[in-house]
């Protein structure tokens, strides 16, 4: 069962906008609407990782670059997201996390593409 089935939809969204989950990434995760921008998609993917919504991560990854298994490591706890830049089809961010080995961070410039009218994640580096 996904984490969203066990948390309040009114709690703050993990993506860091300050909005309630149900007013932010929740509708995207449920398929009620699609991300309007690459930044919104990246934020919703971060929230999906934080909440264990691997189906959403899979659906929003370009099929050409998507791995067979996108299941997040259950020992990783995503703690904070910083968006550094969002220009055109790229978003640069730092995602902070904790594991049993201690805190860490993922710094990435992600690329997105619009496919069949919806933004999808292509790759990052």
From TrEMBL:
It comes from the Bacteria. Residues 37-124 form the YchJ-like middle NTF2-like domain. SUPFAM superfamilies: NTF2-like. InterPro entries: NTF2-like_dom_sf, YchJ-like, YchJ-like_M. Pfam families: YchJ_M-like (PF17775). Belongs to the UPF0225 family. HAMAP family: UPF0225 (MF_00612). This is UPF0225 protein DDE18_17165.
């Amino acid at each position: 069962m996904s984490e969203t089935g066990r948390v309040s939809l009114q709690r703050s969204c993990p993506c860091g906008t300050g909005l309630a989950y149900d007013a932010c990434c929740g509708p995207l995760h449920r398929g009620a609407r699609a991300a309007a921008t690459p930044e919104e998609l990246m934020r919703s993917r971060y929230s999906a990782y934080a909440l264990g919504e691997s189906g959403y991560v899979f659906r929003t990854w370009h099929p050409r670059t998507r791995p067979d298994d996108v299941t997040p490591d259950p020992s990783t706890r995503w703690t904070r997201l910083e968006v550094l830049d969002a220009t055109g089809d790229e978003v640069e961010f730092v995602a902070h996390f904790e594991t049993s080995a201690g805190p860490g961070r993922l710094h990435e410039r992600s690329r997105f593409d619009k496919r069949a009218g919806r933004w999808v994640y292509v790759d990052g580096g």
